[in-house]
Amino acid sequence: MQNNRFYVTVFLWTVVTFAVTCVAYAGHLEPFKAAPVPKNNPQTPEKIELGKKLFFDRRLSGDGTMSCASCHIPELAYTDGQDISLSYPTTKNWRNAQTLMNVAFFKNLFHDGRVKTLEDQALFPMMSAFEMNQNLDFLEEEIRQVPEYQEAFKQVFGGEPTRERIAMAIAAFERTLISVNAPYDRFVKGDNSALTEDARKGYVIFTGKGKCAVCHAGVTFSDDKFYALNIPENPVLLNDPRVTATMRFVAKVYHYNDYRNLKEDPGRYLITKDKRDWKAFRTPTLREVARTGPYMHNGVLATLDDVIDFFNRGGGKGNRFLKPLGLNEEEKKLLKTFLVEALTGEELKITYPEVP
Ligand code: HEC
Ligand code: HEC
Question: pTM for the full model?
Answer without folding.
Answer: 0.92
